[in-house]
Amino acid sequence: MKLIASLTSPYARKIRIVLAEKKIDYELVLDSPWVEGNQIASANPLGKIPVLVLDDDSTVFDSRVIAEYLDTVAPNNRLIPASGRERIAVKRWEALADGVLDAAVAMFLEAKRPDGERSPSWIERQRGKIDTALAAISHDLGEQAWCHGNNLTLADIAVGCSLGYLSFRLGDIPWAERHANLDRLYEKLMLRPAFAESVPRV
To answer: What's the CATH number of domain 84-192, 1.20.140.10, 1.10.3720.10, 1.10.3470.10, 1.20.1050.10?
Structure first.
């Protein structure tokens, strides 16, 4: 299979980590929706990455859908509980972490707009979402070693990718200073090769 992705996309990073943790071989095809002449729309009508291209050339897109697909087709190292409240709990963590990413990406893109077109109130609205979500993630994590249960799950991967993206693109948000438990979690995650090797880079 192939993964169409960029090295800066936090959503793609989440899938690259899932693939590595589950030891699934794949070909990484670098492309970006922001590069003129990109071919992403031919694989995903929404023009977004990541896109997983299967062996029969069918495609799976949206990082949440791809992560669930990969966890289903490769039963080793399960990252999402099979059913019930345990499953919903992990998916809730993922939704919260992805919400941080949605706000962070929106904030980053808005800040790149030319003077006169930029909306400071929009940027602050996104920052407020990030602050509130991080406080909730920190509260829910508490003193636990992992977001859910006693081992790495998709919850930890999603949270780790959101924290990594904040450090990469929005370094003025002092999440590590405000939330020592999130900093500890991220430092632990970065000891895993899948996280260390997928650090976002231009």
So the answer is: 1.20.1050.10
Output the pTM of the full model.
0.96
Q: For residue range 41-75, what is the model confidence (pLDDT) as tens digits?
A: 999 999 999 999 999 999 999 999 999 999 999 88
Query: In the numeric block, which tokens belong to residue 195?
Result: 């996280």
pLDDT digits (tens, 9 = 90+) for 21-35: 999 999 999 999 989
The CATH number corresponding to 2-73 among 3.90.226.10, 3.40.30.10, 1.10.1740.10, 1.20.1260.10 equals 3.40.30.10
Which tokens is 40 given?
């992403």
The C-alpha angle 176, 80, 94, rounded to 5 degrees, equals 40
Euclidean distance between CA atoms 98 and 186, whole angstroms: 16
Domain ranges of the chain: 2-73, 84-192
Q: Do the Cβ atoms of 31 and 4 come closer than 8 Å?
A: yes
